[in-house]
Amino acid sequence: MFATYQEALDWIHARLRLGIKPGLKRMEWMMDKLGNPEAKLKAIHVGGTNGKGSTVTFLRSMLQAQGYNVGTFTSPYIEQFNERISINGKPIRDDEILQLANVIRPLADELEGTELGGPTEFEVITAMSFYYFAEINPVDIVLYEVGLGGRFDSTNIFMPIASIITNIGLDHTNILGDTYEEIAFEKAGIIKKQTPIFTAVQQPGALKVIEEQAEQKDAPIYRLGQEFTISGHESITSGEIFSLKNGIDSLEELEISLIGRHQTENAAVAITAIQYLNQTGSVSISEQSIREGLKNAYWPGRFEILSEKPMVIIDGAHNDEGIATLVNELKNRYADRNIHIVFAALKDKKFDKMIEQLDQVANQLSFVSFDYPRAATAQDLYESSKSENKEMVVNWQEFLKEAIQAIQPDGMLVVTGSLYFISEAKPLLYNYLKNMTIKL
User: Fold this and answer.
1) Bridge partners, 162 (sequence order)
2) Confidence band (pLDDT; 50, 70, 90) for 348?
3) Phi and psi at residue 250, to the nearest 5°
4) In angstroms, rounded to a whole number, what is the distance separating the alpha carbons of residues 414 and 190?
5) How confident is the model at residue 440 (pLDDT cuts 50, 70, 90)?
């Protein structure tokens, strides 16, 4: 038994050594031992390459605006581990993590001795979340973000009231496949029999795969550009404005505070799912709560403006599609700025294509590494860049402070790349900017 939160956390993180082991057998074994808590939940399942966290946030914020108690399971964390399991946006307490770890630890030890092998870090955390939301702190509805893929992801053991696939990108190709179609097949594994599927997937081949899986499962499908459409999009300083039309209803001039055209797509798929569940009686949410929830939705680390003077932005763009979206927003919103980008990535990502895009928009590029087993070296990143104004950084913590001090009135600092890096960089940036403000 663990005596402290830190002991429990160290044990959980130590399971990273087991890596990624796709498959549901270990999760099913643990759920059976726990009395199948996952079967007690009313939940929505959200998968996709990018946009899962933002979509979960839009869903949570709309439901919360109506007064629902909403659980969320997301990954990875940005500011603290506990936020992976949250209620109404508030991370669970340290003592609850300790309690959960003491429930799961004996099962993990027993499972270790079977032919299935011990559960991974992600499987342990997922099992903790199911038990927490069903037995320790029951909620009205839970939003589950897929960890990796879908078909064999640890979360894929419950029957949702709706499934969402945000988009498809070429990420985790060593596990999920090299083509949009192969990855779409893995993502479509979350589609359940006669359960509605909502998607913003645009690639024809990938969408066809999802449509085929929906047909096989007799699942109603709602597609961006077909069953629901976006119009009247306008970028504003504080976010985006757009209108949404679907077979259920039309909503004019919706406002979101998350920045980027892609966020209108994430919001649109979330709204359409909520309206469907409204119509079928699974939830009851007013238009006012929809509008209020959308505007109040906040998701850290996604084109997040930490400061306007000086201009500092962080964005967890950790794959090719994410970087493309970031570059597009920088071109559209800040073409007149001198852009300094600080970038870190994982070595198992295809970072050469990401850097190629950053080369096009950055006036200055700084490459860093960070303390994480899968982190790419600053030198490898540096050598992938063709920029004429690039550098390698040894101590990124001190460098960020210097980079902020060097920002000119027409300049800006963008810190981007791996979400694991963003989770380390954000607190440091926030505290430094706060201290600068106090001194001023």
Assistant:
1) 44
2) confident
3) -120, 135
4) 35
5) very low
Q: Which residue has the higher pLDDT, 79 or 171?
A: 79
Q: What are phi and psi of 232, to 5 degrees?
A: 60, 35
Model confidence at 247, pLDDT cuts 50, 70, 90, reads confident
Tokens at 28, concatenated: 């099913």
Domains of the chain: 5-296 (3.40.1190.10), 304-439 (3.90.190.20)
> Tokens representing 23?
């498959």
The answer to whether 346 and 376 have CB atoms below 8 angstroms apart is: yes
Question: What would the two tokens of residue 401 be?
Answer: 């402070």
| Amino acid, single-letter form, for residue 360 | Q
Task: Classify burial at 314, counting beta carbons within 10 Å of its beta carbon; exposed 0-12, middle 13-18, buried 19 or more.
Answer: buried
Task: Let me know: does 337 contact 311? Beta carbons within 8 Å.
Answer: yes
State both tokens at 199.
């998607």
Report residue 173's pLDDT band, with 50, 70 and 90 as the boundaries.
low
What letter represents residue 189's amino acid? Answer: G
pTM of the model: 0.90
Q: How far is CA 151 from CA 61, 80, 185, in A?
A: 27, 28, 8
Q: Which token pair is 4? A: 């402290």
What backbone torsions phi and psi does residue 185 show, to the nearest 5 degrees?
-65, -40
Burial class (CB in 10 A: 0-12, 13-18, 19+), 414: buried
